[in-house]
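Reading a protein record of the kind used here takes little practice once its layout is understood. The fold follows as a row of integers, each naming the local backbone shape at the matching residue. With these conventions in mind, the following record can be read line by line:

_____
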Amino acid sequence: MSNARHPGLRRQARRVAVHRGLAPRAAAVLTLAAVPVSAQTEPPSAPPADWEATAIDYSNVPYPHPVSYLDVEVYGDPYRLAYMDVPPAGPANGQAVVLFHGMNFFAGGFRPTIEALRNEGFRVIAIDRLGFGRSSKPIIHYNLHIPARNAKRLLDALGIERAAIVGHSRGGMVATRFASTYPETTTHVAMVNQIGLADSRPGRAWTDPAETYQSVLTGTTYESVLRGHMRYYPNGWRPEYLEWVKVQYGLTLSGDWPRMARVRAAQRQILYEDPVVYEWQHIATKALVIGGAEDRLVADYPALARNVAEELQNAELVIFPEVGHSPQFEIPEPFHAELIRFLRSDPDEPADRAWRDTDIGRSRG
């Protein structure tokens, strides 16, 4: 999708920004800074020779802050949930934010977001869901209730009664499930380029997990992992993106890869078996649907994102033109400015719904 087919996106993003009270200069940054200006390059065609295996417990993967663990039980068996509880860098504003990562990332991948939030006084809880990062890797039947319930257990253990919930990609689905299940705990909910924006079951047959496992086990290569990450960035590749390819591809170099492949295969089933599209209408919590318009994971992200915002009872919509699936990496400053503005807003005040009077995401003839 290109702005040629959606000529109003750049214009409408500026209009909504101005309506929110941003200065004209800030509004221009929101729109015009969407195209990254840092140097672009081509990723290596083969994995660098010095890359090592990623340990299944991510013990050799650096995290930006100390990692703690919570004992949890699922299906009667004990596991460990890894998380970072990051205090504010300066004066605390009294707000806590929970971060849910996507399928090809882990809590450490939220490094830019953690720093942006903690510098503004937020306490940040970044969780490795079971099956990811430094959390346990059980071979179980996964669903979205498990990470939502584990996050609630963690908040209870930390003595946090209310928190804002932010989820990126698959993490956006977890954020949806958490907000719909625990509305009394959720002050705000932000869905960043969430996937699962439509029910994928009609017209599509169920895949046996054993087939998915074989596909993951034998089909995961450096090239396939790299292609997956390159899809996130329509404006070209930057060297810093390779870090996430290294971690994900490194799992295939470990002797634990067969187990990890089973875990990833089980996680893949969630998108088909546990949709969240019927939950948005029940969420009254103040919400933000935010993301890059050029998300290559779906055919028309602006239209799908608008549908989510319309289904939610009290939502704002922010679309960044010419940006892809991971705005926190592509345009960190304008993205985090919008996220922080929303999280600072009074949860009891109605969301800014000026977007309803714009053409953002509307189909065009």
